[in-house]
Amino acid sequence: MASSETAQRPDPFEGMDIAETDFLMDVEGRSCCSRCGKSRKFFCYTCYVPVGEIESRVPRLTLPVKIDVIKHRNEIDGKSTAVHAAILAPDDVKIYTYPNIPDYRMEEDVVLIFPTPTALTVASLFSGETYQMKENYGLPKGYHMGTLLRFRLNDIVDTHHQPNGSSSIECNTGNFPVKRAVFIDSTWNQCRGIYKDERLSCLRTVVIQNRISQFWRHQRNSPRWFLATVEAIHQFVLEVHIAAWGLDSRYRGLDHIHLKMDQIPQDRIFHPSEVSPDGVQPYNGQYDNLLFFFRHMYNLIHKHYDHEKLKAYKRPLY
Known about the structure:
Blueprint (H helix, E strand, L loop, with lengths): L30 E2 L6 E2 L2 E2 L4 E2 L15 E6 L10 H7 L4 E5 L12 E4 L6 E2 H6 L2 E4 L19 H4 E5 L18 E6 L2 H8 L2 H4 L2 E4 L21 H17 L1 E2 L20 E2 L21 H13 L14
Parallel strand pairs: 5-6, 5-11, 7-11, 7-12, 8-12, 13-14
Antiparallel strand pairs: 1-2, 3-4, 9-10
């Protein structure tokens, strides 16, 4: 059982605008999925819908871009956090099982979240800024590029190249630089195999900034910033919103995931008084409910297990 340290341990979701999840603790038994009829606890992980009495209380989100998740066939549906996103943002998140995936070669403004030598940051998609990686990503000779994921982005960037003209674009639905983002939900070895598929390898690649994962499942030989899929989706849409419309200076959801306010360019931080009330507002938790079920599962795990004894939280930060 969890020790008394639980009361003193900082809440990693403090400052985020996540709907109340306490009522999920009161759910007893299982309910039948309205679509497939199978018995489920909170949601059906094959139909991507909430079940039973909680259906009307589960938040529903609209995201700034469409999200496709490509799941390896060996990934267990009931353990994938990508399902959370599909339930909470059903109009914007779709899950496919490889190799039955869309052909993205003829679709414009689609990016793949995957580390490659030419990968862009989310901010650079909007600003036009590019950067050059250090030789061999700053790694000793002979290391595979997959090891890139063991390093913070700032540690492997050599030089930045700022385009001529404006450093950012005025965003609206007509000139948004990305319409759809694709995530691969699998182990790292499986992920590299899926990436070789021409339907995916043709896409521009994007990397997200490092943040500390709160995922409770241990991933051997990986640092704490190997994110669960729903954490990665949340991080991506958060960065998209900040790049497009800025960050509310009052938002404090970054503090416990090692994304500090001083890492955000000052020209992207706004007080509400500086923004027209008729326009899209700076980020102040609009997509935090993507972590609704994730936060509940985190709390449930920590109700029964001591945080300090869980291997997942003993991994190195970097």
